[in-house]
Write the C-alpha cells for this entry.
Amino acid sequence: MKLWSISGNTQKLDGGAMFGNAPRALWERWVQVDAHNRIDLACRALLASPVAGKTVLFDAGIGTFFPPQLRERYGVVEDHHVLLESLAQAGFSHEDIDVVVLSHLHFDHAGGLLAPWAEGRAPSLLFPNATFIVGQAHWQRALHPHPRDRASFIPELPALLQASGRLELVDGAHSQALGDAVRFHHSEGHTPGLLLAEILGPRRVDGRAHGGVVFCADLIPGRPWVHVPITMGYDRCAETLIDEKSAFLQDMLAREVRLFFTHDAGCASAQVVRDEKGRFGTTGEQVALHAVPL
C-alpha cells in the first residue's frame, strides 16, 4: 500500500477562531498571521492504494463550489479545483477513486466532491465510481443541522449523495466497503459523528494493530492542536474534544500510529511523542507524501 498527500484549495481564516480561547500571544508562536488576523490553512486529503483492493480518498477538501463572493468571504485562495490537479499529479483522476471516506460534511472537507461553480449550473457530484462513507450520527446532523453550524454544511450535498446510490453510513468500527483494513474512531467534540479513519498498520502486538496512519480531521487539524488544551472556536464542545483528544493521542502513541493533518499548512504527517511532563508533541514531520509505503 502507498500513501499520497493530496493538496486541495487553501484557505485563510481568522486565527482567533481557529484557536478558540487561546490568546494570540500564544498561538502566533506556531503560525504566521497576516494583517487581517488570518492564518494559512491547507485542505489536504489522503490518498491510499490499494486498501482492501481499492483506491481510497480520505476527505475531499473545500473545492471551488462556492460562487465568487462566497469564495472570498470564506477565504478560499484559488479559483480552480486544486484537488483534481493534485490527483492528476499523483497519477489519478476522480474517476479512479473507488471509495471516498468523509470525516464529516462541513464544506471545507466535503466541498471538493462537487464540480467547480459555474453561473446558472446546479451543484453536481464528481467521483462517479466511488462509494461515499459518512458516519451515521453525522449524517443526521447534516440532514438537521444546528443553528450553530448550519452555515458549515452544503444544503444540496446530502440529496446528491443519496441520489448517487453509493452512500454507506457507518456507526461502528468498520465499513462494508473497506472491511478490516480501516478502523473508524468516532468523535463528538467538533461535530456529532466525526469519523477518524485509521488505516491499520501491518504489525500486531497483543492483538492490536501498530504502525498505521490515522486521518485526524478536525479533532487535531494540525500540529498546534496536538497540544491537548488547544481547541477551535468552531468546536461544539471544547471539554468533550479535549477528553477525546487526550485518549486518542495516548492510543496513537502506544501503537505508533502516524497522524495525518488536513489543515496544517506546512506538515502532512507526523509521529506522536510525549515529554517528561506528559505533554504531547510531534516528531518526524513530513511536508508531503508521494507514494510512501505504509
